[in-house]
Amino acid sequence: MKLAAIFAAAALAAGCQSTPEHKPAAAPQEKQVAKLDSDGVQRVQVVAGSYFFKPNHIVVKANAPVEITARKEPGMAPHNLVIKAPEAGLSVEEEIVTEAKKFSFTATRPGKYEIYCAKKPPIGQSHRERGMVGTLEVVP
Q1: Coil, strand or helix: which one is 39?
Q2: pLDDT digits (tens, 9 = 90+) for 46-81
Q3: What is the rounded CA–CA span in Å between residue 129 and residue 123?
Q4: Which phi and psi angles does 55 have, rounded to 5°?
Q5: Residue 124: in which H helix or E strand, if any?
Q6: Whole-number Å distance between alpha carbons of 107 and 101
Q7: Rounded to two decimals, what is the model's pTM?
Q8: Pairing of strands 42-49, 35-36
Q9: Are 139 and 61 in contact (CB under 8 A)?
Q10: Topology, domain 27-139
Q11: Rounded to an integer, what is the distance from CA 112 to the centroid of its chain?
Q12: How far is 137 from 14, CA to CA, in rounded Å?
Protein backbone atom coordinates (compact mmCIF):
# COMPACT_ATOMS: atom_id res chain seq x y z
CA MET A 1 0.00 0.00 0.00
CA LYS A 2 2.82 2.38 0.94
CA LEU A 3 4.64 1.59 -2.32
CA ALA A 4 1.47 2.28 -4.32
CA ALA A 5 1.13 5.68 -2.64
CA ILE A 6 4.74 6.52 -3.54
CA PHE A 7 4.17 5.53 -7.18
CA ALA A 8 0.95 7.54 -7.29
CA ALA A 9 2.70 10.61 -5.88
CA ALA A 10 5.56 10.23 -8.37
CA ALA A 11 3.12 9.88 -11.27
CA LEU A 12 1.18 12.91 -10.13
CA ALA A 13 4.37 14.97 -9.78
CA ALA A 14 5.57 13.86 -13.21
CA GLY A 15 2.24 14.81 -14.74
CA CYS A 16 2.52 18.30 -13.27
CA GLN A 17 5.90 18.98 -14.85
CA SER A 18 6.18 20.88 -18.12
CA THR A 19 8.31 19.46 -20.88
CA PRO A 20 11.43 21.46 -21.75
CA GLU A 21 9.93 22.32 -25.17
CA HIS A 22 6.80 23.77 -23.55
CA LYS A 23 6.75 27.54 -23.48
CA PRO A 24 3.89 29.17 -21.59
CA ALA A 25 1.65 31.50 -23.50
CA ALA A 26 2.76 35.08 -23.05
CA ALA A 27 0.62 36.96 -20.57
CA PRO A 28 -1.26 39.90 -22.05
CA GLN A 29 0.68 43.10 -21.52
CA GLU A 30 -0.84 45.29 -18.84
CA LYS A 31 0.90 48.62 -19.31
CA GLN A 32 1.14 51.14 -16.49
CA VAL A 33 2.86 54.50 -16.59
CA ALA A 34 4.46 55.28 -13.23
CA LYS A 35 2.82 58.24 -11.51
CA LEU A 36 5.10 61.23 -10.98
CA ASP A 37 4.45 62.64 -7.52
CA SER A 38 5.10 66.22 -6.39
CA ASP A 39 8.39 65.11 -4.80
CA GLY A 40 9.72 64.10 -8.24
CA VAL A 41 9.53 60.33 -7.54
CA GLN A 42 7.76 58.03 -9.99
CA ARG A 43 5.66 55.47 -8.12
CA VAL A 44 4.05 52.20 -9.17
CA GLN A 45 2.52 49.24 -7.35
CA VAL A 46 3.24 45.67 -8.46
CA VAL A 47 1.59 42.41 -7.42
CA ALA A 48 3.36 39.07 -7.97
CA GLY A 49 1.42 35.83 -8.15
CA SER A 50 1.37 32.41 -9.77
CA TYR A 51 3.93 33.13 -12.48
CA PHE A 52 2.86 36.70 -13.23
CA PHE A 53 3.56 40.33 -12.40
CA LYS A 54 0.69 42.80 -12.50
CA PRO A 55 1.27 45.14 -14.20
CA ASN A 56 3.82 43.38 -16.40
CA HIS A 57 4.76 46.47 -18.44
CA ILE A 58 5.90 49.54 -16.49
CA VAL A 59 6.80 52.83 -18.16
CA VAL A 60 9.11 55.28 -16.36
CA LYS A 61 11.11 58.36 -17.31
CA ALA A 62 14.89 58.17 -17.45
CA ASN A 63 16.96 59.92 -14.77
CA ALA A 64 14.05 60.29 -12.33
CA PRO A 65 13.81 58.14 -9.19
CA VAL A 66 11.37 55.22 -9.30
CA GLU A 67 9.77 53.68 -6.22
CA ILE A 68 8.09 50.30 -6.59
CA THR A 69 5.79 49.01 -3.89
CA ALA A 70 5.59 45.26 -4.42
CA ARG A 71 3.77 42.43 -2.70
CA LYS A 72 2.92 38.86 -3.55
CA GLU A 73 -0.40 37.12 -3.40
CA PRO A 74 -0.77 34.72 -0.46
CA GLY A 75 0.75 31.30 -1.12
CA MET A 76 3.76 29.13 -0.53
CA ALA A 77 5.81 29.96 -3.63
CA PRO A 78 8.56 32.53 -3.03
CA HIS A 79 8.99 35.31 -5.61
CA ASN A 80 11.43 38.08 -6.32
CA LEU A 81 11.68 40.93 -8.80
CA VAL A 82 14.87 41.23 -10.83
CA ILE A 83 15.98 43.87 -13.34
CA LYS A 84 19.59 43.53 -14.51
CA ALA A 85 20.69 46.17 -17.00
CA PRO A 86 24.00 47.73 -15.94
CA GLU A 87 24.06 49.82 -19.13
CA ALA A 88 21.00 51.67 -17.74
CA GLY A 89 22.21 51.77 -14.13
CA LEU A 90 19.80 48.98 -13.13
CA SER A 91 20.73 46.27 -10.67
CA VAL A 92 17.55 45.31 -8.84
CA GLU A 93 16.98 42.00 -7.05
CA GLU A 94 14.33 42.24 -4.36
CA GLU A 95 12.46 39.52 -2.49
CA ILE A 96 8.69 39.96 -2.62
CA VAL A 97 6.58 38.96 0.37
CA THR A 98 2.86 39.24 1.16
CA GLU A 99 3.35 42.53 3.01
CA ALA A 100 4.01 45.50 0.74
CA LYS A 101 7.71 46.31 0.36
CA LYS A 102 9.19 49.45 -1.20
CA PHE A 103 12.41 49.68 -3.16
CA SER A 104 13.88 52.36 -5.40
CA PHE A 105 16.13 52.80 -8.41
CA THR A 106 16.88 55.33 -11.14
CA ALA A 107 17.14 54.17 -14.75
CA THR A 108 19.66 56.24 -16.68
CA ARG A 109 19.13 55.11 -20.28
CA PRO A 110 15.96 54.84 -22.38
CA GLY A 111 15.12 51.36 -23.60
CA LYS A 112 13.16 48.23 -22.74
CA TYR A 113 14.50 45.98 -20.00
CA GLU A 114 13.26 42.62 -18.79
CA ILE A 115 11.69 42.23 -15.36
CA TYR A 116 11.64 38.64 -14.11
CA CYS A 117 11.39 36.32 -11.12
CA ALA A 118 14.63 34.37 -10.65
CA LYS A 119 13.17 31.71 -8.34
CA LYS A 120 13.50 28.07 -9.39
CA PRO A 121 12.20 24.99 -7.61
CA PRO A 122 14.55 22.00 -7.21
CA ILE A 123 12.62 20.18 -9.96
CA GLY A 124 11.08 21.79 -13.03
CA GLN A 125 11.27 25.14 -14.73
CA SER A 126 12.19 28.46 -13.17
CA HIS A 127 9.49 31.04 -12.62
CA ARG A 128 11.04 33.05 -15.47
CA GLU A 129 10.79 30.04 -17.80
CA ARG A 130 7.16 29.62 -16.74
CA GLY A 131 6.35 33.14 -17.90
CA MET A 132 6.93 35.29 -14.82
CA VAL A 133 8.42 38.14 -16.84
CA GLY A 134 7.60 41.70 -17.71
CA THR A 135 9.04 44.84 -19.23
CA LEU A 136 10.44 48.02 -17.75
CA GLU A 137 10.22 50.65 -20.48
CA VAL A 138 12.38 53.70 -19.86
CA VAL A 139 11.48 56.76 -21.92
CA PRO A 140 13.37 60.05 -22.34
Answers
A1: coil
A2: 999 999 999 999 999 999 999 999 999 999 999 999
A3: 13
A4: -75, 160
A5: none
A6: 19
A7: 0.79
A8: antiparallel
A9: yes
A10: Immunoglobulin-like (2.60.40)
A11: 15
A12: 38
